[in-house]
């Protein structure tokens, strides 16, 4: 029986600069070439993961956005999307806004483009997140005046980045919803902040 190896990215395969080191890439690529079964599972989106995994010879389906997306890394084609229906997605946006939170809303449109809509970066962790992604060529991010009105396709997930005490109550409430999958954890690069990410339960 063969073994499938699945690695996380941030805090695992990536270094402190959020990169796959040259040594790591060489070792993994040699092992894959010799027959090792290897892939990744990450909270990162397809565009973000694509950037940091560019030097790896990935051949097996990869898991992105905490299971919202299963993607063929060779063709960059989504094999499965566990998306939120529009009405529940708009309800989630209203829930966040009612709590004084400004989530990032991630979508996938009919033309196959990824988007990340938000009302503006309001804290240091959000600014670092957006700045790092944009510096790496990630063009998904768009500031909009109305998040619900920005939904232009499949809603993949919502993410909020705040100190843990600002999002803990919303997490407790949403985590009891059987239609949702909720991830709540600190940011490994800026531990004073936490992420609350909401997706479809099938993720």
Describe this structure in words.
By secondary structure, the chain is of the alpha+beta class. It has two domains: 78 residues, HAD superfamily/HAD-like (Rossmann fold); 115 residues, 2-Layer Sandwich (Hypothetical Protein, Haloacid Dehalogenase-like Hydrolase, Chain: A, domain 2). Helices cover 30% and strands 29% of the residues. It contains six helices and eleven strands. A six-stranded mixed beta sheet has the order 8-7-6-9-11-10, with helices on both faces. Strands 3-4-5 form a three-stranded antiparallel beta sheet, with no helix packed on it. The mean pLDDT is 94.
Task: Give a quick summary of the entry.
The protein is an alpha+beta fold and 203 residues long. Helix content is 30%, strand content 29%.
Characterize the largest beta sheet: strand count, sense, and whether it forms a barrel: 6 strands, mixed
Number of domains: 2
Provide a count of the helices.
6
**What is the name of the CATH topology of the largest domain?**
Hypothetical Protein, Haloacid Dehalogenase-like Hydrolase, Chain: A, domain 2
Return Rg in Å: 17 Å
Shape: globular
Q: In which range does the helix fraction lie?
A: 25-40%
Helix and strand run: EHHEHEEEHEEHEEHEE
Please identify the structural class as seen in this structure. Answer: alpha+beta
Give the strand line-up of the largest sheet: 8-7-6-9-11-10
**End-to-end distance, in Å?**
27 Å
Highest-level CATH class of the largest domain: Alpha Beta
* Total number of strands: 11
The average pLDDT is 94
CATH architectural grouping of the largest domain: 2-Layer Sandwich
Q: What amount of the residues lies in strands?
A: 25-35%
Q: Extract low-pLDDT stretches.
A: none
């Amino acid at each position: 029986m063969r073994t499938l190896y699945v690695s996380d990215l941030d805090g695992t395969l990536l270094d402190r600069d959020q990169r796959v080191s040259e040594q790591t890439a060489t070792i993994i690529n040699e092992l894959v070439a010799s027959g090792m079964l290897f892939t990744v599972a990450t909270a990162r989106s397809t565009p973000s993961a694509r950037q940091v995994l560019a030097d790896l010879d990935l051949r097996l389906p990869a898991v992105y956005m905490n299971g919202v997306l299963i993607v063929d890394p060779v063709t960059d084609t989504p094999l499965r999307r566990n998306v939120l229906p529009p009405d529940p997605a708009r309800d989630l946006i209203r829930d966040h806004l009612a709590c004084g939170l400004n989530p990032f809303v991630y979508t996938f449109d009919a033309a196959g483009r990824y988007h990340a809509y938000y009302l503006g970066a309001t804290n240091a962790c959000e600014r670092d997140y957006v700045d790092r992604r944009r510096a790496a060529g990630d063009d998904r991010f768009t500031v909009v005046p109305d998040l619900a009105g920005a939904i232009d396709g499949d809603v993949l997930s919502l993410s909020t980045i705040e100190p843990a005490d600002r999002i803990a109550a919303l997490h407790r409430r949403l985590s009891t919803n059987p239609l949702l999958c909720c991830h709540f954890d600190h940011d490994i690069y800026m531990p004073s902040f936490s992420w609350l990410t909401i997706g479809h339960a099938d993720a």
